[in-house]
Amino acid sequence: MRSISNLPGAIFRLFIFIFGTQAGRITTGVLLIIGGMIYGITSHQIVYRHITGNFKIHVLDDGNDYFEDLNAQTKTYYAVDSANFTPYPEGEILTNGVAVTSLTYVADAHYSINIELANAPSLVGTAYTAVQFTMESQGSAPSSYAFADYSQHPDGYYDNHWWVGGIFAGFGVLFLYAALMIHFIVKMKNANRRDEDDLPLEKIRWKRDPWSRHNVSYKQQPDPGTAFKKYTQ
Question: What stretches pass through the bilayer (predicted)?
């Protein structure tokens, strides 16, 4: 509870550091540029691969189903996220004698899984993301289901991250530019202040307020005739 109560203060101090200090502006700018460049470099070509075979369907309660490739030499699964398929077959259909005859998956991205099941052996092995699959059942025509991205680009596409990365890098450049401008402004003010230290007080006043010289009242010099008359009396 105490850490949560300190959160607004920490956010405020971070805000002051980023926008109110030169070190914060420079650090933020450099991090944004580096982060944007790294994210842009991760742009890559999405490659799809199509396979046929014999697959075992594992229906999970969280909406992520797995198709196990029974012909693979090692345990290989293809993850099917039901939220990304429009439409997607109901769970009863998947468990009532249908067979997945072929599927398409993202070939350049895989990960390891270890999923414990309540009434079946755990799913342990390598998983790929399936983007399309075809099912067949007795007495009905084959049905195909696919990602929207796959339907639009069945031959793959280039996943470009440079747009977002470029925006972050652009903000980083703005932070560095602001830090540079503030540095020069402060430097010029300090230089002017040092120059004023070497000037007489009256010139400093005129330099800061040029119009003040028109309001300076000079002491009137005595009239020579009046002074001579006073001396001879």
Answer: 12-39, 162-186
Phi, psi of 98 (to 5 degrees): -85, 160
Q: In angstroms, rounded to a whole number, what is the distance separating the alpha carbons of residues 108 and 101? A: 22
Residue 178: both structure tokens together:
């602001």
Quick count: other Cβ atoms within 10 Å of Cβ 101? Answer: 14
Q: Got the DSSP string for 96-122? A: TT-EEEEEEEEEEEEEEEEE--SSS--
Indicate whether 33 pLDDT > 90.
yes
Task: Give pLDDT tens digits for 131-174.
Answer: 999 988 776 788 888 988 888 888 888 889 999 999 999 999 99
Structure tokens at 136: 């067949």
Residue type present at position 65: D
pLDDT reported for residue 164: 93
Domain boundaries, the chain: 2-42+162-180, 46-159
Half-sphere exposure of 163 (CA within 13 A, CB side): 3
Number of residues that this document lists for the chain? 233
Whether residue 11 is predicted with pLDDT greater than 60 in this model: the reply is yes
Closest CA to 146 of 81, 73, 202: 81
Question: What residues does 76 pair with on adjacent strands?
Answer: 126
Neighbours of 32 (CB within 10 A): 21
